[in-house]
UniProtKB/TrEMBL annotation, chain A:
Membrane topology field: Multi-pass membrane protein
Domain ABC transporter: 341-566
Protein name stated in the entry: ATP-binding cassette, subfamily C
SMART domains for this protein: AAA (SM00382)
Organism: Klenkia marina
Keywords in alphabetical order: ATP-binding, Cell inner membrane, Cell membrane, Membrane, Nucleotide-binding, Transmembrane, Transmembrane helix, Transport
Domain ABC transmembrane type-1 residue range list: 30-310
InterPro entries, per database record: AAA+_ATPase, ABC1_TM_dom, ABC1_TM_sf, ABC_transporter-like_ATP-bd, P-loop_NTPase, Type_1_exporter
Domain of life: Bacteria
GO cellular component, one term: plasma membrane
Record's subcellular location: Cell membrane
Transmembrane segments: 27-54, 66-90, 167-186
PANTHER family per record: ATP-BINDING CASSETTE SUB-FAMILY B, ATP-BINDING CASSETTE SUB-FAMILY B MEMBER 6
MF GO annotations: ABC-type transporter activity; ATP binding; ATP hydrolysis activity; ATPase-coupled lipid transmembrane transporter activity
From TrEMBL, chain B:
ABC transporter domain span: 321-547
Subcellular location: Cell membrane
Main subcellular location of this protein, as a coarse class: membrane
GO terms for cellular component: plasma membrane
Protein name: Putative ABC transport system ATP-binding protein
Organism encoding this protein: Klenkia marina
Length: 571, 548
């Protein structure tokens, strides 16, 4: 269970993936790009017109009329082009993003079991949540602005060049200063922003932990310590936030210096050129106004640089997952058959000592077998192997005497892990069989004794943000999903463990109903469940040590008999 | 009862009063910054007029020097002003967050505690929005200053033009602001749809193993694809609104520029204005959008802060769950619920069996103070708990619920949160709780005990309760996640460590009930039977509830 990370792609590969999508829409891509360039270019018309106006004033000739017409045309043209380019860019960017996020989620849900066990849970979650959100944010609000600003800067420099190449050169003097400011800022800001995010995460965690555990905090009069932890983590994140902002304002000071140098250079060079009669006062005015107008878009580019960088990092992480091989949809077997299941010479270790050591086990067709043993005996591992969730280090699983290509297609597993999917009750259960009718969903719920769910209404929102279900209710939903999926073989791994003792009994009945008619292995926690099974298998230190019916094992007076005596403890 | 403001306005006012130094410095410096920003177009105009048009070198040097000073003052004023703003803003946020946490953790509890997610949002987002009132206040002053400086500049050049610009700029910003609620509405739906997509992805990935168990990966992928497509459609609809808004903004400022340049240009062509003045007027007209926008922005932030302040006050000034009371007098630890005819004998171990699990839950909630006791409902050593101090009652009556909550730390801090016990005592209670296998006291424990198995969590919680050694210990289903052998050990350990002290076991485990001095059976809010386990075992309803 080492902590491995999912693959991360390269910038080149990410660019390639985006390009491949864009290539399938050549017209849309070209039109979008053109509209953005045209919008930025039309924004330069107004300062040019104002420059001409200044020249006219300088010469004291001409009338205001033509200038007004030109300014009006510029305003209308820029407005329309800006609006159109924003819409087109969203169409293109958002579509590419949607396709990419769908691919990421598809691959994440189809990760090979072995990979799923090895990767850190948080890594997978952050790929589908944080990374997607970050790239989406960049596409939705960042992309049009950054592209617009970038084009404006580029075209403005070209515009300056068109006025006079020496004025453009003067403006370019600021460039090294901007680059220096950025090179000063980025290496310092990255780690600080990362530290800030970590500190905020820890702060939220301290809060959530104290709030959720408030009853326990009160019970142990532990209020002062928890308050101190919240105070401490909040103060820490405050100090990082202030530190980050200090850096940000220092960066601002550096960019202001670059702005001044550029503006002063344009004015000084303009002064010289006007004195030499090479350019007009109006041209210098235009140049100064153009340069002044650059402060906004340049600042935007500079201050979103780390957002762009981090969106890039997220994109690379998304593409890393999206590039995983595609898994074709699997065909599921239904319980029209009741196969015999045979485990032959199963051994398994998680890299250390053997957890399962040469286990042979046969489940007869339709037979219910209970697996009993102390914690650490290997019960869950064996259940995982039988369910096809775990590839054993050695040994084979046979169905009706023959190996099968995809064991998981035949076996349904309900484990200790309880998850209520956010959405309606019907949606939750229907995940097991998307075509199921409401009547079939209701029938599945009633089979497992979840009449409360039917009474509540199939449309009730449950899971995160919906109505909170108790642990036994959530497990009943899992059993209802099993009924609807209708696999020929079922594995229940301590499906009743988290419920209180009273709830556990009801759940046992639900579980019995859910596996009726299937070849079944139940990892039994409560011995009452073992007592009702057709056969009991006792596992100790990875080996089968006893097996037989409940009555046989109790009569045999071995380890199981002692467990049973302790469990039933009559008198 | 506590010293917090009780209204949203009160909370905002306190936020401003709590940071006088930061607020004062920020207001001064940001006003200076805005004034300097207003002067940049003036400086360009003056440079063109005095130097570029005349060709005077000393004038050029003087202009560029003055502009340099302007830039230095401008950027330093912003640099330090903004730092003061952020310091005030986030210090206030921090203080509010700590206050909210303290209020939630107050031993008296609070009536109607919001759900965790909402509380988290109040302690982070709402606290941050309330703190932002510090920024909004300094921006109002700074924006007004910039308006005043621009007004003086414009009116000096041309009175009618100045008045026109001063009326036109706010009008333009106001008109654009009229569009913004429409835009917010259009984008809000889109943001919700996108958030739903993100939520669905997280939710499905969290449940991956469950999905795999029943082969539902394809169905889940398909569901995500549909939601993602719907979100895309909604985003594209919103993009139309965003595009329109951006276009309107560009058009509005373009038309404004047209009007100003038209009037100023006509005046200049008539010789009533110099070239430099024309440049200044045009520059100022463009700049004016900034302070006007700042004022609108500040107004919006104050409105947001007010809404958030109401939510923060809702927590800070919430009614306590338990009224203040007197500490209980010492006693042997006898509990009574007269209405149920139920009592717990001091110094003995009492088992409680309920026919309905909800009754057990309700009893434990009352004993643990998760629900306030009504007058006369619950007596501790003959004293009405409703009139007692809740923290002092908890110091005598400890309830460890079925769902054990452990906090981040080590095994040592999990078992001994107070840090008061020696190692021998720790080991004794771990052994009695059947957790002797957890030998490493420095073992890291993740939040909510996630790094431990369900059985380990339960046993560690039990060891924690035993170590505390309260006068009255109430345990609810303490052994549901442990195996039968360990359960027997725990039953023996409990009997050993709790000998002579009051213990209540709300459970249906025969292994635990068999060791109780007396078992009480509750059905429909009343005691229906009591006696030792082996005597009750003959009753069919008892057997149905316990022995199966």
């Amino acid at each position: 269970m080492s902590d491995q990370l999912l693959p991360v792609s390269t910038g080149r590969r990410a660019g390639r993936v985006v390009w491949d999508v864009l290539r399938t829409r050549p017209v849309a891509t070209a039109v979008t790009l053109l509209s953005a360039v045209a919008a930025a270019a039309s924004g330069l018309v107004a300062p040019a017109v104002l420059g001409r106006l200044v020249d006219a004033v300088d010469r004291q000739e001409g009338s205001i009329g033509p200038f007004l017409v030109a300014l009006l045309a510029a305003a209308l043209l820029t407005a329309v082009l800006t609006g159109v380019s924003v819409v087109l860019m969203a169409r293109l960017g958002e579509t590419v993003l949607a396709r990419l996020r769908e691919r990421v989620v598809d691959r994440a849900l189809h990760l090979p079991s072995a990979t799923l066990d090895r990767v850190r849970g948080g890594d997978l979650l952050s790929r589908v949540a944080d990374d997607v959100a970050k790239v989406a944010e960049a596409v939705t609000s960042g992309l049009p602005q950054v592209v617009g600003a970038g084009l404006t800067v580029l075209l403005t420099l070209l515009g300056l060049g068109a006025l006079d190449w020496r004025l453009a050169l003067a403006g370019l003097v600021a460039l090294p200063l901007y680059v220096a400011a950025l090179r000063w800022y980025l290496p310092r800001s990255g780690p600080r922003y990362a530290a800030e995010r970590v500190a905020m995460g820890e702060r939220s965690q301290a809060l959530v932990s104290s709030v959720q555990g408030a009853d326990t905090v009160h019970a142990y009069a532990d209020e002062a310590r928890h308050r101190a932890v919240v105070d401490d983590r909040s103060a820490r994140s405050l100090s990082i936030t202030l530190d980050v902002f200090r850096l940000y304002t220092d960066f601002g000071w550096r960019t202001n210096r670059a702005e001044y140098v550029g503006l002063a250079a344009v004015l000084a060079v303009g002064f010289v050129l006007v004195r030499a009669d090479t350019v007009t006062v109006g041209a210098v005015t235009t140049a100064a106004l153009l340069f002044h107008r650059l402060f906004g878009p340049l600042g935007l580019l500079l201050f979103t640089f780390d957002d762009i960088q981090s969106a890039g990092a997220s994109l690379v992480r998304m593409v890393g997952v999206a590039d995983l091989p595609d898994v074709p949809p699997a065909a599921r077997a239904r319980s029209t058959t009741r196969p015999a299941v045979e485990l032959r010479g199963i051994r398994h270790s998680y890299g250390g000592p053997a957890v399962l050591d040469d286990v042979d086990l046969v489940l007869a067709p339709g037979e219910h077998t209970a697996l009993v043993g102390a914690s650490g005996a290997g019960k869950t591992t064996l259940a995982g192997v039988l369910a096809g969730a775990l590839e054993p280090s050695a040994g084979r699983v046979l169905l009706d005497g023959a190996p099968v290509e995809d064991l998981r297609a035949h076996v349904g597993l309900v484990s200790q892990e309880v998850h209520v999917f956010a959405g309606t009750l019907a949606d939750d259960v229907r995940l097991a069989c998307p075509d199921a009718t409401d009547a079939e969903v209701t029938a599945a719920l009633e089979t497992v004794g979840a009449g409360w769910a039917v009474a509540m209404g199939l449309g009730t929102l449950v899971g995160e943000g919906g109505r909170e279900l108790t642990a036994p209710q959530a497990q009943q939903l899992a059993l209802a999903r099993l009924v609807l999926a209708d696999p020929p073989v079922a594995v229940l791994d301590e499906a009743t463990a988290e419920a209180g003792s009273a709830g556990a009994r009801d759940l046992e009945e639900s579980a019995d109903a859910a596996v009726r008619g299937r070849t079944t292995l139940v990892v039994a926690h409560r011995l009452s469940q073992a007592a009702r099974a057709d056969r009991v298998v006792v596992l100790a230190a990875g080996r089968v040590v006893e097996q037989g019916t409940h009555d046989e094992l109790v009569a045999a007076g071995g380890g199981y008999a002692r467990l049973w005596a302790a469990w039933s403890a009559r008198g | 009862m506590n010293g917090h403001p009780t209204t949203a306005t009160g909370l905002l006012r306190r936020a401003l009063h709590r940071h006088p130094r930061q607020l004062g410095a920020a207001t001064l410096l940001l006003s200076l910054h805005q004034a300097c920003e207003a002067l940049v177009p003036v400086a360009i105009g003056v440079t063109i007029d005095r130097a570029v048009s005349t060709g005077s070198v000393p004038a050029l040097l003087a202009s560029l020097g003055a502009t340099a000073v302007l830039f230095v003052v401008l950027s330093q004023a912003y640099r330090f002003g903004a730092r003061h703003v952020v310091a005030g803003w986030f210090t206030e946020t921090h203080q509010l967050r700590v206050e909210v946490a303290a209020r939630v953790l107050d031993p008296h509890g609070l009536r109607g505690t919001p759900p965790t997610g909402e509380l988290l949002s109040i302690a982070t987002n709402d606290a941050e929005r309330v703190g932002r009132v510090v920024e909004a206040a300094s921006l109002v002053v700074a924006g007004t200053t910039a308006l005043a400086v621009s007004a003086v500049g414009l009116l000096t050049i041309s009175v009618p033009l100045g008045i026109g610009v001063l009326l036109g700029a706010p009008l333009l910003v106001g008109l654009l602001q009229l569009l913004s609620p429409w835009l917010t509405r259009r984008t809000a739906t889109q943001q919700e749809d996108v958030a739903r997509t993100a939520g669905l992805a997280t939710d499905l990935v969290r449940g991956t193993r469950v999905l795999r168990g029943i082969g539902a990966e394809d169905a889940a992928t398909e569901r995500y694809r549909r939601t993602s497509a719907a979100a895309l459609a909604s985003t594209l609809r919103a993009a139309g609104a965003v595009g329109t808004y951006r276009g309107a903004t560009v058009l509005g400022s373009g038309l404004f520029l047209l009007a100003v340049a038209g009037v100023a240009g006509a005046l200049a062509l008539d010789g009533a204005m110099t070239v430099g003045q024309l440049v200044t007027v045009v520059g100022l007209a463009q700049f004016l959008a900034e302070p006007v926008g700042l004022l609108g922005f500040a107004g919006q932030k104050v409105a947001e802060a007010r809404a958030s302040a109401a939510r923060v006050v809702g927590v800070l000034a919430a009614e306590p769950l338990h009224p203040t009371g007197v500490p209980p007098l010492p006693g042997p630890g006898r509990l009574e619920l007269p209405a149920l005819g139920f009592h717990v004998e001091p110094g003995r171990t009492t088992g409680v069996v309920t026919t309905d699990p909800a009754d057990a839950e309700a009893l434990v909630a009352l004993l643990g103070g998760r629900r306030a006791a009504l007058p006369g409902e619950l007596l501790l050593d003959g004293q009405d708990v409703a009139g007692l101090d809740p923290a002092a009652v908890r110091a005598r009556v400890l309830v460890e619920p079925h769902a054990v909550v452990l906090f981040e730390g080590t095994l040592r801090t999990a078992v001994d949160p107070a840090g008061a016990a020696d190692e021998a005592a720790l080991r004794t209670s771990l052994t009695a709780a059947g957790a002797a296998d957890l030998a490493d006291l420095e073992l890291a424990v993740a939040d909510r005990g996630r790094s431990l198995s369900g059985g380990q969590r339960q046993r560690v919680g039990l060891a924690r309760a035993l170590l505390r050694g309260p006068d009255v210990l109430v345990l609810h289903d303490p052994t549901t996640a442990v195996d039968a052998v360990t359960e027997g050990e725990i039953a023996a350990g409990l009997a050993r460590l709790r000998a002579g002290r009051t213990t209540v076991l709300v459970t249906s485990s025969p292994a635990l009930l068999g060791r109780c001095d007396r078992v009480v059976v509750l059905r429909e809010g009343a005691v229906v039977a009591e006696g030792p386990h082996h005597e009750l075992a003959g009753r069919p309803d008892y057997a149905a509830a316990v022995l199966r």
